[in-house]
Amino acid sequence: MLESRRDPNQLNANRYKSLRNYTPSSIAKAAYKAAAYGVPLGTNNARNDKRYSVVSLWSMVAENDIEIDDELTKAQRKLRDLKARISAQSKRNFTLEKDVRYLDTRIKLLIKNRMALDVQQEVASRLDEVDNTLGTIPDDRKRQLYGNLFFLLQSEPKHIAMLTRLVSLSEIDTLLQTVMFTLYGNQYESREEYLLLTMFQNVLSAQFDSATDFGSLLRANTPVSRMMTTYTRRGPDLDLEINPLKVYEQMIKDIEEETGKPCDLPKGITQEVAQENADVQAIIAPRLNMLMEITGSFLSTIISSINQVPYGIRWICKQIRSLTKRKYPDATDFNICSLIGGFFFLRFINPAIVTPQACMLSESKISPNPRRTLTLVAKLLQNLANKPTYSKESYMLSLNPFVEQNKTRINKFLNDLCEVGDFYESLEMDQYIALSKKDLELNITLNEIYNTHSLLLQHAEVLCPNEEDHLSIILKELGTPPPQVPRKENKSIILPLFNRWETLIADNPSMLADSQLTQGDVLYMDTKALMVQIVRAMPAMAKEKPLNLLRIAEAAATSHDPTLVRKGIKVRDMLYQLEEIGVSDSKHEFMANEVAQEIIYLGSLKEKVMKEIKSLEVVFKTICDHNNFLRSQLESYKAYLQNVRTQSGTQMVKGKEKKNKNKSNHIFGPIKYTHAQLEKEGVIVESNIPENRKSNIYFNISSPIPGSFIIELYYKGRAKPILEMDLKLDDLLEKQQMGIQLLDLEYVRLNVNRVIFILNKQFLKR
């Protein structure tokens, strides 16, 4: 404890003696608050102490001291800049990837002129260049209010956590982009990453608390599952197709190409008939063995790389295990691991396997056969992780021996994945340090600000029902949110963040009364921190053993550097005050020893920083290369789209003159279908709804924005839907391309091809 170094006789006499001309530093303000809230004081020798202590706050701030200009500070400045560029580039890549996926699917529709005018205009707008110059909010008061609002949202994740549960499925993607890539966009800063994970915990807890069925946990397409997917997005040419029908069709094609004559084998057969064909079975048998061998190799690599799995991913797995045990205490380890595996493989591993180029794991486009092999590997790993009692594709049942052989192995891995420590103490320290900073800011676009403002206001009654809530006060003062600006005008701004309700120590005497810290404690730590700054700026003085602090202060006070002169005079006065109140003697040997240890530690810290810079430079280059690839794709789309416009006569550019005439809200539908209608159309292929209730079931399908569709399942007489699912055209077309035939809606299973046909017929041809 700090008290242990003092003379007890002097302590009581001088504890409350006023300290002349001394104003506590900004970190002292955070330290008082930390001590008042129960953070242990710790010892003066912070380097040998737990990081979770009041004393260690000064040392943690010293590690990133911007007032010094030595080699360590220059390296740290370079590291901070590199981290900021990686975060900004990651956000740009995420936006570009969305544009590329969107355009890839819609240009195919445009060729056949099957898109409605508003969808065509949306496609054209995706090709508009974004102005990367910084913008501003001219109204200074509005800018300050937004700075206060986003500080509140960032530092208190409960608001965003609740908002993600309140917004509609059509609104969630835009909100998540703001949350993941802007509000908590710097994944290399522990405070932002830990706050984001805290928000995850709130959302997951709410999902588990409201769950009525174990089997539906984390399975449905919900804001929670979308959030987890968005978070995780921060070989030889072998034909290993094992789908009997596809093998049969390829076999006929090969025979016809080889003989030059039509094959006499029957066409248009079912998968079951194809599976009985002896030649098909002979082709598939060796492929099954090869596929299991390749998947086994993937699995071994994944298991051996457990220490390379990002902390955040492992921590979410840990929360899934913990929440499941709390909600379902009788759940078996088998069932719990299936939930963990569902998240880890579906959201993190399999996207990298199926689309290695999108995940920056491959520089060239994957050809069809390897792509299909990777898809089958991902399916087999997913079956292993989920441990289903049935397989959605019957041909996958042939691979069950692999699942049986590896289920114990995968369970151990998934449990090991959860064995990580918590971050709550580290986050608490980061939050206190943030209180001492004056340069908190956010790089955010105008539309991100306005959209978040709009969503918060829309759900204000739930988010902040009390008029005295800070969020309620800010929203009331901000008033009505501005409308979204066009893509070309959607500039980024640097938004300073601050807390208008921050209490100064001088204005709140009770903070001192509640804290175990005395003014003498804080003076001691501030003096030591300032002395470390001076020794770092005058490294020759550090060679003296032991350090003579008064001599160092005098040397600084009489130097030719105005900044050092100011600091030298100040620290000299502080040393004398420490003597007067009995906290330190005239030689200050105790503090001198601590300063020397701090200097040694900071010297070794430079090597760690340089190593991290080297590693992150490789990451940044990879991200930039991927950005160039995405931009080249967009350029090809521009040329392609212009060519299609010319050939088909589509007047999307000229249509801008008719913008006001054609302008209308996009929302279409809902279009109502009975259960019987969708069964007849071949959309519903399996149903868990009892026969006597099917007549009371109907579906509403609507399109809130171009390319996005909402399917709602209703029971007659009920105002609210039993089930709601948000579908993206991109996702459906990708499933179709990957050969995924079924879409699981919990109560019914839909045919992907027929769903696309219905949506195209009702919404895309207008």
Automatic annotation (TrEMBL):
SUPFAM superfamilies: GTPase activation domain, GAP, RGC domain-like. GO terms for cellular component: cell cortex. One of its GO terms (molecular function) is GTPase activator activity. Pfam families: RasGAP, RasGAP_C. It comes from the Eukaryota. This is Rho GTPase activation protein. Residues 191-386 form the Ras-GAP domain. GO terms for biological process: negative regulation of Ras protein signal transduction.
